[in-house]
Amino acid sequence: MSAQETLSQPLTLPRGQVIKNRLLKSAMSEALSDRTGYAAPELARLYGAWADGGIGLCITGNVMVDRRALGEPGNVVLEEGADRDALRAWAQAATRNGTQCWVQLNHPGKQAPKGLNRENVAPSAVPFRQEMQMMFPTPRALTDAEIRDILARFTRAARLVQEAGFSGVQIHGAHGYLVSQFLSPHHNQRTDDWGGTPEKRRHFVLTMLADMRAAVGPDFPIGIKLNSADFQRGGFSEEESMDTIRALADAGIDLIEISGGTYEAPVMTGVNAQRAVKDSTRQREAYFLEFAEKARRIVATPLVVTGGFRSAQGMADAIASGAVDMVGIARALAVEPDLPNRLLAGHEPRYAILPRTTGIAALDRSGLMETAWYAVQLRRIGRGQAPLPRMSPWRVLAGIVWAQLRRGRIGPPKRLRAV
Fold it and tell me: Which element (helix H / strand E) includes 403?
């Protein structure tokens, strides 16, 4: 079977939903809310471009479940009272041409920069490593009642996603955000029902999945993005990740996207991932394929890996190996929204995806430019403009500095002052 034929095969999920091909658009931060935290019109244009571009399953950037807990400026927030018309317009554009679009739901926990929220919360009051404490405050440990409130917020958000017309939801359980923090023995040092043993650390995400399922019914897909490991001393290990995958599969999760890393060990960003993986892994293109092969031996749940793919043949080889059922693409879609159509027509990507660096070591290690550079491209597509694949990272950095200076002079929007 040719690469084109392999990628064009439909995939039937455990609950019967059919994804039209094996290409998944993984989450990228769009930062395209309006001043109230609701979905801006640019999101419908952006996701409409990806739907027209041929993607089979599109995962949105992280949507927050509590406006008091943003991960970054511009996050969309899904709470009761959200603009239903804007959500429906977004969903309608994102699901045309038979595309499935799932909303990624998230809470940052401790992983939000200073000054963005009134306070940061986490399973335990564990600070960031010393050199990051200037940017991230030490969080306050959540109470049992607050944990249950957050779970209820995820459930309400999932119901809003379903009512708006999206195809499913994805729990963000990776990259050091709150769900990931609960799973990590480094971040979760509780001794109550929510921590102390691997089983109790999994209690948060398994309760979330059960509550969501009860709210949205048996036929609405629920997936998760999960770390293969935190790549951090004392953090979430490969062994615990395997046990979590097994538990999620037993609980009926519909799709597992495998990733890795946190802000303190940002393996998921392009430059850091390329440094972290072995030569043999780079040759196979996918960053986390070896882990997926191990996971495939213990679960039949559909699996996805994202990151590192450079060619149609590399993507097809990953699927043909049986280790994964779909391949995730992210950054390439920010400069080439119609890439799926090209791949499915037998063509290769127009542009090589290279690390976006400034030469400032500390800045480049943080992965900030990887997020910011691509966010600029997404905003351009959302405004009906063409991406600029050769845009200088320094131009983006200058824009960030200017925006911060303006924000310091005029303050945040009135509706967001209390978050």
Answer: helix 393-410
Q: CA-CA distances (angstroms) from residue 85 to 44, 89, 133, 301?
A: 11, 6, 40, 34
Question: Distance between CA atoms of 90 and 170, rounded to whole angstroms?
Answer: 16
Structure tokens of 264? 């303190």
Query: What DSSP assignment string belongs to 199-251?
Result: HHHTHHHHHHHHHHHHHH-TTS-EEEEEES---STTS--HHHHHHHHHHHHHT
Query: What's the pLDDT at 268?
Result: 59
Q: Is 269 exposed, middle or buried (0-12, 13-18, 19+ CB in 10 A)?
A: buried
Range name among 172-186, 221-235, 321-335, 398-412 with the lowest pLDDT average? 398-412
Looking at the predicted structure, is the pLDDT value of residue 269 above 90?
no
CA–CA distance, 65 with 103 (Å, rounded to integer):
11
Q: Do β-strands 18-19 and 11-12 pair in parallel, antiparallel, or remain unpaired?
A: antiparallel
- Identify which of 153, 130, 164, 102 has the alpha carbon closest to the alpha carbon of residue 302: 102
> For residue 272, what pLDDT band results from cuts at 50, 70 and 90?
very low
Q: How far, in Å, CA of 372 to CA of 191, rounded?
A: 38
> What pLDDT score does 58 carry?
98
* Strand 255-259 with 121-122, pairing: unpaired
Q: Please give the average per-residue pLDDT across 227-234, as a whole number.
A: 83
Let me know: does 174 contact 260? Beta carbons within 8 Å: yes
**CATH classification code of 3-416:** 3.20.20.70
What secondary structure does DSSP assign to 122-151, as a single string? ESS-PPPPGGGTTTSPPPEEPPHHHHHHHH
Mean pLDDT calculated for residue range 274-300 = 74
Give the DSSP H or E segment for 327: strand 326-329
Q: How far is CA 122 from CA 70, 106, 180, 199, in A?
A: 13, 13, 10, 18
Helix (H, G, I), strand (E, B) or coil at 38: coil
- Cβ atoms of residues 278 and 287 within 8 Å: no
CA distance 315 to 310: 8
